[in-house]
């Protein structure tokens, strides 16, 4: 089943659009709250299309993701009772409970790991608020983790440039499904530990 190749091609076309930075910022913000598509899907093609702007794209993605994370945090902090039915319908209730346990054990470190890795950041932003994680550590862990991730993705993509584009396109299905399997594995592991 080819899923990631067509998505990659579409995002590569969007990367050339004059409003692409707005789309990237919006995608980054809403992904930290509820949207399933990570901003890397737009960030990498945009950095490839305009290598000189890679750091601006990475900064935009980082800042808007942290802002979206703050909205997720507020949802968890102020409206967890209203959000729980949505988490249950979306199939994230068990993951949410496991994340709550991880917050109790590891605090800021779990937020940093969630911000840096491809696991669903939105679950952790809402859980961080619901766990009443102190706001400053939440923001710092999100900023550092998201910043490292997005600057790494954008920088490596811009650095590799046209040399890596055919390789990336050729292996995008393997990479995409590999990340999906990794996410599922992490969620299973979190559920087994919870």
From TrEMBL:
Task: Give the signal peptide, or none.
Answer: none
- The portions of this protein that span the membrane are 20-37, 57-87, 108-132, 138-159, 171-190
Question: Any idea where the VTT domain is?
Answer: 39-156
- Report keywords, A-Z: Membrane, Transmembrane, Transmembrane helix
Q: Name one GO cellular component term.
A: plasma membrane
For this protein, the record's InterPro entries field holds: DedA_domain, VTT_dom
Q: Does the keyword Ion transport apply?
A: no
Pfam family of the protein (one)? VTT_dom
Which PANTHER family does the entry mention?
ALKALINE PHOSPHATASE LIKE PROTEIN (PTHR42709), DEDA FAMILY PROTEIN (PTHR42709:SF11)
- Write down what this protein is called: DedA family protein
Q: What is the lineage of its organism?
A: Bacteria, Pseudomonadati, Pseudomonadota, Gammaproteobacteria, Lysobacterales
